[in-house]
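Quick illustration, no need to memorize.
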Amino acid sequence: MSDILNYTLFTIGGDTPVLLIDLVTSIFGLTCVVLAGRNSKYNFWVGYLYTTLLFLMFWNKHLYASLILQPISLSINILGHYRWTHPGKDEESSADHTALKVSKLSWPQRIAAIASVFILAALWGWLLSLLGNRWFVGIFPADPIPYLDACVTVLILVAQFLAALKKWDCWIAWLLVNITQMWLHISVGHVFMPIVCGLYLINGIVSLYNWSKLYKKKA
């Protein structure tokens, strides 16, 4: 397994490896978010494979907060798949009664989401800073950037949960994810993923606009 995860396609500058797992994960990730931005329920099927690939990639880099996120992400993905295809009576899209329509959070809900990100990220980052340094020393390598890792993790969970409920606000959360995740990947030496995060950022802006139109149409 280790040989597969560390299989190098080529190197950049003579010492920066470009791994196969990074490339494959990038392709699946881009496909997933493009489909989601186009309001396609098929993004969930691609998302199942993407979650598995991310788990392997983060295991390889000892990013434990992002690693633990993947089983949770899988659960949210399953929830989203069900919600998007099983709307309630007052939640049906005007374009397709079998699909969930786009909606928005209220301001109190937005404030609660922002507060939860700060609190959970701080707590999770502190716990990660102990893992490998004080706890399980010699068993787990220390997380190189625990607070950034935790911040990205919590933002992703919030964005995924909002996307599962088909909330327009999820794309605001995803834009923040893209920016912080780009920083995270650069910090640990990933080559393809920072580029992919830049493409995610562009897709997020386009999707924010697309979902705004869907919201106005109650679609």
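The first strand starts at residue 8 and ends at 12.
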